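Exercise 4. Each item below gives a protein and its sequence. For each, produce the structure-token representation.

Item: 4-hydroxy-tetrahydrodipicolinate reductase (Poriferisphaera corsica).
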Amino acid sequence: MTKVAIFGANGRMGRRLVALATEMEGLSVVAGVDGAGSPQIGEDIGVLAGVGELGVPLTDQLCGDVEVDVVIDFSVPAALAGVIEECCKRKLPLVIGTTGIGDEHQAMIDEAGQRIPIIWASNFSLVVNVLNVLAGKAAQLLGSDFDIEIMEAHHRFKKDAPSGTAITLAKHICDASDHDFDRDVVFERHGDDCLRQPNEITIQTLRVGDHPGEHTAYFATLGERLEIKHVSTSRDSYVIGALKAAKWLSLQSAGRYTMSDVLKLDRV
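Answer:
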């Protein structure tokens, strides 16, 4: 049985992690952590997640006497440094699903990978990670004669834009082709002189209602167009992927890993 501690356990994603972990064979949630000052501190995380009592209270820190095999963090960027420090101190594998993290956080993750098994993904959905591979293959096969665009849509409450998933998708396309991310990727268009430039890849963003997530890569030339799309109908797809990543990571040695490692997509 893999014992899981969840940081951000009282958030939207955290509650679904708790709920779905109870349904996944071989997993047991032994700790749930939320920010200090949360009014739900002390309440049972199973009750908060809507699955009944689990006998695990929500706490504002990971208690030292709790036996943990792997940590999943879906909290906030400001808390990430503390989570990484705690996991390194206790030699705990760490799965990071927190969105909106920057270059300084990526540097922390790189450094932590020298001490513990660690994985960060902009999206843990199994199908989204296949989308990345397929889009990269399409860019490689179709070549520079095709225009490439990315459209992403999420709920109105999402703070960061474009989504980390869209950025990761663009990076996969660039890595598989002659595009350069820093040179060619453009975020939106606005103005009187927005004529498409050679090799340009534009990421467009929508924020509407309660949309859980949609990403489309367009490859178009004169007379025809290929669209590769992923539509999420529930956030549970992200949660299931994160839980599977946690089970896999708990058995690995120190290093920084990706979902391609978890899913063995390098064999494709």
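Check: Residues 73 and 91 are 15 Å apart (CA to CA).
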